[in-house]
Amino acid sequence: MERNSKIQQATEQKIKAFICKHQMISPGCHIIAGVSGGADSMCLLLVLLKLRQELGYEVSVLHVEHGIRGEASLRDAEFVRHFCARQSIECHIHHCSVPEFARVHRMSEEEAGRHLRYAAFLEQKKAWANAGGTIKIAVAHHLSDNAETMLFHLARGTGIRGLAAIAPVNGDLIRPLLGIRRSEIEAYLAACGQPYCEDATNGLDRYSRNKLRHQALPVLHEVNSRAAEHMYEASCQLREICGYLEMQAQQACQRCCTLTGHGAQIQKEPFLQEHPVIQKQLLHWLLCTLAGSGKDLAGVHIDSVMALMGKQNGRQAQLPYGIRAVRVYEGVRIEKEETEQTTDGTGKNRFTFRIIEANSDQMSQISKKKYTKCFDYDKIKNGFCVRNRQSGDYLVVDADGSRQKLKKYLVNEKVPAKERDRLLLLADGAHIMWVVGYRISSYYKVGKHTRKILEVTFYGGKEDEGTDSGNDFRGRSKCKNQRDRGADQ
Q1: Which terminus of the chain is more solvent-facing, meaning fewer CB atoms within 10 Å of its CB: N or C?
Q2: Helices 182-192 and 2-21 sit at what angle, rounded to 10 degrees?
Q3: Which residues of the chain have pLDDT under 50?
């Protein structure tokens, strides 16, 4: 009993010190705790209840039932409800269908679950906002989660921003357990005699993070038992570096950019005088500001804007979120494209771009529409842009890598000569990824080794909802097995 008491006190004091260090909680605030019923979230809730009188805050609980595990998921919801009832804590159960949301929005179940959880938090936060006071949302990420995130971002391809991983505080979102390990959480629950729910999906290695948790992290802890702590320290340093670089980028923006209502113009000469690190940081900051998000913005987009500085006036790079970069006499103009009005009064961007993770769910949903195409994102070498045809343009026409000049292809397809110069092309340098309205290059087809997919939709065609007839140089037959032979696009 004495040993258990010491474990409880030591863990609670460690978490309290972490909360105070990062100024997560102020007296009189209300904390909405995300509680799944699993070990991490039950530890979070127990500690918040133990510290609430000392730190002077209130606690309520939100449980999101994802609709994935059937009866087991509903049992977890009841477990949380009963616990809260015994503790006289207000509890809200939010039901949703992650598989359906993932299917409709073409994203992984992991991404869909995260989106729906935070949407539920925001909804609950609005409900409490009417009562006044400061509201915080507490989630149960811990040291191992931070390490998994670093490795996940590193494997996918990231800069220092992705390696900064999970922040202890992000606006109203707080993570009180980020300073302790999973083993400490389990020891604390055992000392408290507190049962918790086991999510069977946590043991499935079909999820990327589970592979890292079960295979990569144990090896790192064999190398050094404090690997997760050291990775967290590195992520904190990287977060500080990111903050400093962003501050420097904003100052550089004042020296070499003119901001407008819907974009910015970068003056070439002062821009090139900045350090390359600041140049890239500045472009990333501008693009994120215009887009309102940094989710689908990657290094290839920054590089495509940088490359414009050395190109002819009029050259363009088409970027995610309807953003376009254009080479002008003074430098580069970045702007968010205005939407076109359709007959029903709704607005549409001419092109939309989305980068998604390739998995079994996504592979079964590769678009067959004539004006929505999917490409193997990692095969793009020079960055992509939308333009008209130029001398030297070519496509890859089969799985063996055979090339054909764009001009010959257009002749073979009997495209009228007067229309050829007006055709829109999605291009990676001289390599044409997509002749819009016709076919894509075989080189960029999505296949079983694809990790990231670039999905592009064009809204200017006459047959936006039509199905592609399968333009293919070896006949017009559909590819039946997308996973084994590459997606039919």
Answers
A1: N
A2: 130
A3: 339-349, 360, 362-364, 461-489
Classify 304 as helix, strand or coil: helix
Q: How far is residue 153 from each of residues 205, 218, 298, 472, measured CA to CA in Å?
A: 17, 18, 12, 36
Query: How far apart, in whole angstroms, are the C-alpha atoms of residue 15 and residue 250?
Result: 35
Is 143 within 8 Å of 228 (Cβ atoms)? yes
| H or E stretch at 292 | none
Alpha-carbon torsion, ordered 246, 250, 252, 253, to 10 deg: 130
- Give kind and range of the element (H or E) at residue 230: helix 227-256
E strands in 169-285: 169-170, 173-174, 257-260, 263-267
Q: How many residues does the chain have?
A: 489
List residues bridging with 457 in a β-sheet.
Answer: 352, 372
What local confidence, expressed as pLDDT, does residue 468 receive? 44
The Cα-based distances of 146 to 164, 166, 199, 224, 276 in angstroms read 9, 6, 20, 16, 29
Residue 320's contacts (CB-CB under 8 Å, 6 or more residues apart) are: 291, 296, 297, 301, 353, 354, 355
pLDDT of residue 348: 43
Res 355: pLDDT: 73
Pairing, β 452-458 against β 372-376: antiparallel
- Helix axes 143-156 and 227-256, enclosed angle (nearest 10): 60
Q: How many CB atoms lie within 10 A of CB 96?
A: 18
- C-alpha 133/C-alpha 306 separation (Å) is 46
β-bridge mates for residue 394, sequence order: 405, 431
Predicted pLDDT of residue 106: 74
**Tokens found for residue 196:** 């918790």
> What tokens appear for 319 in the block?
């970027």
**Residue 193 · residue 3 · CB < 8 Å:** no
The Cβ of residue 266 has, within 10 Å, a number of other Cβ atoms equal to 25
Q: Do 278 and 302 meet the contact criterion of CB atoms below 8 Å apart?
A: no
Helix, strand, coil percent values for the chain (each to nearest 5): 45, 20, 35
Does pTM surpass 0.85? Answer: no
> Quick one: DSSP state of residue 212?
I
pLDDT at 23: 94
- Residue carrying the six token digits 């009029």: 314
E strand or H helix that includes residue 60: strand 58-65
Q: Give pLDDT, residue 127.
A: 82
